[in-house]
């Protein structure tokens, strides 16, 4: 029974080359033997990828259900699977180095890229903090105590006891990675992974650091100072490069801080503008008045309210809103004329007089 390579990769016949590659990446990560996967399944998806990623072989497969080699003789065994397209193919064996195929996917095989000459990067981490409305508008600082994997302070991340040196790793002979060979119908199947002894460094300490047991990193508590920029909205992220988790022989990841803003009793933020509601007595609405408000930075501000021509109006105070990089928004005061619930006899007479004047 002919094999259905499209079903093997979980794609349809209209799939693009990028779709084929993405499907193979996903399945290879799941079934790779070094990740504890099914070796037989891994061979199947590798075979399918070798056919569908090659334009000529895919065209033959779509037309005839198989591929052909040389002068047209039907391909045997793996239906035209050509191991030579992979790096490291030589007489008697196949060597897979997935660094090109999986470029940029640093955590597919083991979390970090193994081997010397490649920069390893620690994990990114994220936390949530809650700030006051005032802090979100004016900016501020916040200190947090975070437990994360960091560089060992005793050995400065080398893994070696202070004052000692390192030797070439005998497991990988200084290469930083090792080759593991397995038998397959194609011959010797060799996979490449980072050396577990030296953790991809190629060197091991003569005497291990007692604090981190030679790993160069360890989980510890660290106090971080977070600078809150002025004008932040709730849900925004602050990126702190290099404050994520450390990795031996590489660069640390980043810390992402998600900011949640407590609501304010008076103010709301709309872009770079601050908005507040202000009820105005009917008499003040008719003839105008002066009111005192408390700003976000808790300062008193005298506001002149002109006579209102409508029951609801907006008073704009330019430059009194959010300031970011020297640019300022406005303070919008939404005025609403309020009607009294009860009127005294004197007030009713005054209103009757106004009514007589046509007001």
Description:
The chain is an alpha+beta fold. It is 19% helix and 32% strand. The strands form eight sheets. A four-stranded mixed beta sheet has the order 13-14-20-17. The chain has a three-stranded mixed beta sheet with strand order 3-8-7, with no helix packed on it. A hairpin with a 2-residue loop joins strand 18 (323-324) and strand 19 (327-328). Helix 2 (17-31) runs antiparallel to helix 3. The chain is elongated. The termini are far apart. Mean pLDDT is 81; it is low at 68-116.
Give a brief description.
The protein has 7 helices and 20 strands. The chain has helices at 5-9, 17-31, 39-52, 55-64, 133-138, 282-287, 345-356, and strands spanning 68-69, 73-74, 93-96, 125-131, 140-151, 166-168, 177-184, 187-194, 203-205, 217-228, 237-240, 255-261, 268-270, 273-281, 289-294, 300-305, 312-317, 323-324, 327-328, 331-338. The model is unreliable at 68-116 (pLDDT under 50).
């Amino acid at each position: 029974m002919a094999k259905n390579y499209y079903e093997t990769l979980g794609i349809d016949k209209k799939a693009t080359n990028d779709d084929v590659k993405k499907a193979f990446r996903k399945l290879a990560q799941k079934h790779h033997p070094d990740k504890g996967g099914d070796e037989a399944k891994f061979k199947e998806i590798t075979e399918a990828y070798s056919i569908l990623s090659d334009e000529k072989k895919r065209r033959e497969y779509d037309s005839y259900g198989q591929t052909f080699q040389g002068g047209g003789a039907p391909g045997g065994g793996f239906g035209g699977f050509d191991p030579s397209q992979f790096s490291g193919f030589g007489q008697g064996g196949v060597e897979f180095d997935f660094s090109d195929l999986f470029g940029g996917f640093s955590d597919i095989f083991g979390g970090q890229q193994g081997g010397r000459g490649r920069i390893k990067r620690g994990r990114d981490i994220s936390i949530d903090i809650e700030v006051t409305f005032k802090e979100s508008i004016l900016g501020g600082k916040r200190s947090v105590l975070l437990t994360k994997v960091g560089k060992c302070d005793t050995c400065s991340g080398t893994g070696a006891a202070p004052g000692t040196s390192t030797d070439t790793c005998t497991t990988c002979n200084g290469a930083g990675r090792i080759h593991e060979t397995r038998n397959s119908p194609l011959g010797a199947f060799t996979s490449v992974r980072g050396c577990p002894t030296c953790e991809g460094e190629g060197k091991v300490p003569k005497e291990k650091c007692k604090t981190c047991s030679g790993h160069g990193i360890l989980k510890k508590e660290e106090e971080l100072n977070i600078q809150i920029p002025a004008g932040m909205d709730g849900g925004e992220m602050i990126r702190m490069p290099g404050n994520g988790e450390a990795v031996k022989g590489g660069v640390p990841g980043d810390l992402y801080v998600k900011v949640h803003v407590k609501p304010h009793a008076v103010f709301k933020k709309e872009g770079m503008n601050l908005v507040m509601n202000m009820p105005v007595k009917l008499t003040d609405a008719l003839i105008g008045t002066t009111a005192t408000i408390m700003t976000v930075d808790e300062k008193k501000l005298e506001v002149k309210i002109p006579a209102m021509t409508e029951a609801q109006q907006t008073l704009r105070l330019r430059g009194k809103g959010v300031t970011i990089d020297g640019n300022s928004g406005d303070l919008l005061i939404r005025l609403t004329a309020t009607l009294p619930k009860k009127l005294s006899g004197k007030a009713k007479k005054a209103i009757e007089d106004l009514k007589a004047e046509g007001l």
